[in-house]
Amino acid sequence: MPLVPLPELLSHAGANKYAVGYFESWDVYSLQATVAAAEASNSPVIIGIGGLSCSHEWLQSGGIEIYGAIAASLAARSSVPISTLFNEADSFREAAGGLGAGFNSVMMHTQGWDQDKLLADTASLVAASHAVNVAVEGEIGALAEIKDGVLDAAGASYTSPEAAELFVRETGVDCLAVAVGNVHFVTGSHVPTVQVDLIKQIGEAVNVPLVLHGGSGTPDDQTQRAVQAGITKINVGTKLKFVYGNALVAELGSTVDDPNLAFGSRFEADVNSRAGVALAKEIQRLMDVFGSTGQAKR
Ligand code: 13P
């Protein structure tokens, strides 16, 4: 199936009251496991990589093109609808590197930017992206995050419906990431409280799909209430690396018997393939929570 435009995926999700997962990858195995999970669950999915979890120097010296090509190739071979996202670029320049590289959607991490730069750079990215049929996710408001195991809410601010309306009108973004109590990079016991009423108010103020970042820390019941309130895309990162990393550690044990089989063989003994199976299982579980399971059949 060819790449499906992100707005098309999200409008089907909105009409049918589910959310499409963006399961952030970090290598070929994790990208493949994500697509395998989507196929096994008959679910649409968004695949890609993100600038918050990867060296910008590496991304800007070929990384964007390498992963964009792999993601686009996986999408083209897949039997389910897939969009590819270059997530959370650090600047207009870095995000523009995703255009023509295999991603059909891009996003900048703009938290903390001043309003003029935010509006101008986002509008410029929308113009450049739409010219080559790439969608843009914008964000307004700033998430708290877990840093060194502790909640850091110093720069955090909720998305106001008025600011969201102005931002969408001025920039023309295709979907909007909101800060509604969701928290980035939750690794421990912190439980965020997602403000469902605020999601509804923002949804009434704007005419684009809404996105919830920080999917790792949001409990399943809150996630489902957020979807019912109007969220149609959910980003998950940290939790996936936990699942994969722990599976990898368990598979590796203390010695490697046959390195040729253990690494890159794609046979039964390939430890990364085995960790990928654990990763796909967790992604399928999340697809059930998001309601996207079975939604690939239209
Ligand atoms: P988590 O790592 O908290 O799941 O957040 C992922 C994310 O929002 C990427 O954009």
TrEMBL record:
GO terms of molecular function: aldehyde-lyase activity; zinc ion binding
Transmembrane spans: none
CC cofactor: Zn(2+)
GO biological process: carbohydrate metabolic process
Coiled coil: none
Cofactor note: Binds 2 Zn(2+) ions per subunit. One is catalytic and the other provides a structural contribution.
Residues involved in Zn(2+) 1 binding: H184, H213
Cleavable signal peptide: none
Residues annotated to bind Zn(2+) 2: E139
Keyword vocabulary terms for this entry: Metal-binding, Zinc
Protein name in UniProt: Fructose-bisphosphate aldolase, class II
Originating organism: Salinibacterium xinjiangense
Phylogenetic lineage: Bacteria, Bacillati, Actinomycetota, Actinomycetes, Micrococcales
